[in-house]
Every structure is written in C-alpha cells, then in structure tokens.
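Supplementary notes for students who missed Thursday's class. We covered one full example, reproduced here. Read the sequence, then the structure, then the short commentary at the end.
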Amino acid sequence: MAQRCNIRSMAATLPPVATLDGAITPKDVTRFHNEFESDPRNRQSMNAVCTTTINKVALNRQRVNELDRTFSIHLPENAITAQKQSGRCWLFAALNTFRGYAIKSMNLDDKFELSQNYMLFWDKLEKANYFLDNILKTLDEPVGSRLLDWLLNAPMQDGGQWDMFVNLVQKYGVVPKSAMPETESSSATHHVSWQTTGKLREYACRLRAAHAKGASMEELIERKQEYVSEIYRMLAIHLGEPPVRFDWQYRDKDKTFHREGEMTPQEFYAKHVGLNLDDFVCLIHDPRPGHDFNQAYTVKFLGNVTGGRPTEYLNVDLGVIKRAAVQQLESGSSVWFGCDVGQYLDRDLGTMDLRMFDYELVYGTRNGLTKAERLQYGHSCMTHAMVFTGVDLDADGRPTKWRVENSWGEDPGFKGWFQMTDEWFDEFNYEVVVEKRFVPSECLAALKRPAIELEPWDPMGSLA
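Structure (token representation):
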C-alpha cells in the first residue's frame, strides 16, 4: 500500500506531458456537414456513387469517343493468353516475348504457347530454397525484426522480376505447353502457395530453434535439403512433375509434319528461341531524390535462384527508356515491361489513360502526388508485367500511345488487348527490358560499377 501511495505522489509531481489533441469534435462534424451541403454537386456525386462504381461515374465519355486503336508500329500478334487466378503475369509476359521466336522458328500458328506451368514449378521450388538459404543467413536476427518479418511475409508468392525469369531459363530451359500443361493449381495458385508458405514458415521456425540449441551449420543445411525435398513433393502433387526430357513433334501451319525426337528443355530453348539473355538489360525509371540516373541498383534478398544472377536495374531518364522501347519495336521485337496497372485503368475498354476518369469532378479534389512522391509514400509500385507489341508515333516521331499484350484472357479490353497513353507511361510505367544495343553507351557504363543496394522493402523490390 505504501508503495502505491509513493507512486501516486511521485506522479503528481511530474510536469504535464504535452499532447497533440487531434480528436474530431462535434464542432468539426458540423463544419464538415455544412461544407458538404454548401455545394449541390456533392449530393449529386453521393447519389451516383452510392448506386454504382466510382469509375463508371467518373468515366470521361468524351475520352471514350476519342479512342483510336490504330498504331503506326504494330507487330504481328499471337493469341491472347490467360493467367487466370494466379499472379504469374511476369512469367506469361516473358514467355509471350519468347513464343514469337519459337513460332517463327517452327512456322507455327499463333495459338502456340510455351508452358507457364513448367516455369511456375521451378520458380516456386527455387524460391523455397532461396528463402531457406536466407533464413540460414539471418539466424541471429531477432523475432519481430523488420528484416525477419519481411522474409516471412511472402516466401512463396507468384510474382517475380525479369532477372528472376532469366535465372529460370538459363537453368531449366523452356518447354511447349503440351509437355507440361496447366493444372487446377497452376491456374488458381492460392492453395499451393498457402500450403507451401505454411511449411516454409514452419521450416524457418525449426531451423532457428535448432540453431539456438547449438546445431552446426552442416546439420542445418542437411535439414534444409530435407525440407526442399518436401516442397518438391507438394509442388509435384499440385502442378505435376516437370519433364527432364520430352518427345517433340508438330505439324506447322503449312500442314508439314516434323519429328524432332527426344529433347531436353535446354535443347528446345537453344533451338527454337535462341536468345542470348545476357544481351538484355532491365531499365527502370525511379525519379526519387537520391536515386541517380545512369546508376545500377539492386535489392537485398530479392531473387529466386541461389547462386543465380542478382536482380539488377539500370535507372535512366524516361527519354532513354522510351527511345529504347521504340527502337526495339521498330526492330520487330516486343518489349517486356512492369507497371502499376491498377491506376486509371478501364478494364472493359482496355485503356490506361490519365484522362479517362474525371475524379476531380466527382470528389472536388484530386491526388496531387508526383511519381517520386507516390513511390516515397507508398501509393504506387510495380504490380503487373505485360508486353508492348506496338506504338503510335506522331509526325515528329514521339510516342502518343502504346499497344499492350496482356495475359487476362480475351474478355477484358479489346479482345484481350490493351493500350496505354504516353502520359500514363510517364506516371505509372516503371521498367522495360530491352536489348543493350538500344541503350546509350554512357548509360550502360553504369553496369560496370557496383550496383547500389536498396533495402528489401524498397518499392523497387516489388514483384510484378
């Protein structure tokens, strides 16, 4: 009792703590109401938005009438693909750039596809191994630390980046879709991802507990190998086992039959795609202060293949990105890119256009953040990968809009095809993959210097 009295009396002698009293008061609510009622447009907007979606209310009908789906540069296009209920856009987009080469090599029709399921299997297995290796590298990181929380957040998600795709191709090659077709779980990845993620978190717990009890690194690595074997079994149950060799024969679009016999995925890639992936570079536009142009960046703990190439970006001015993309399209090759697809997107019309929705008319205010500020304050990052297959240039050779191959099937957009205004490109496109020959030498020189490492949670570490 005396102790409690002493505490109270001591507390009474402390000076009052300064507080920021930011509570909403009844007076504030009255002011908010009066301001809302003072403009009848607010009531009109409320009546409209309470009964339909904001994008339908804000849709700029004049902009819809101005839609033009012709392009001055328009590559031959193949049948639209569908990633369905999965986050494999980066794999679909990359394989869609590859299949054009395969179709030309074998004189096939536009419905030919490379197996997205094959790449998904190896990506998830490699991500599991990569995650566990990172757990072994951070065994003394305390539970609850920002780094450990980040590692545990999504060790088996579907997304990825270009260099992660390159790692898979260089290690495992590619196969026709017929050699490893889709399964229920490849088209709807929630269950396989959730089940394997649960096991990986369990494995992380067990490895860290064994380390705390004095297990040697050799013992931990041996245990890790057993865990990866279990993940392989789970993936095979959901996705099927990937072929090590397969028989390949086909009939081309001229009805000529070809029998090539048994091939490995690496042999198939070399013969029917044949790109030297070291000739490509991933350009980004990151205008945040302190993120210099003509500088290479990488992100800590971002990858999928242990011992593979790191995820590396070359940050350049927007003009460099656009010129390189246009030149690659002019050369006859499509362009893989990553963007924040949900911004100012009309899914039905298949348009990404800053002027397609007049939100300011509805709300009486607009989002005033710049591209750099959106990155700094968490309002934008790379969320989706697609492919440029065309561009419309004005009389002075400047792009006005871009033709986009998506992987959402044929229902959205113009039979599955989308288009992006050049203004939208400026604000929400973040990366393109192009051949190095289309990039100025003074920009490429940055690749000879060590890349600056960004923290794992940096927005440039987001996965498409």
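Commentary. The mean pLDDT is 95. DSSP finds 18 helices and 14 strands in the chain. If anything here is unclear, bring it to office hours.
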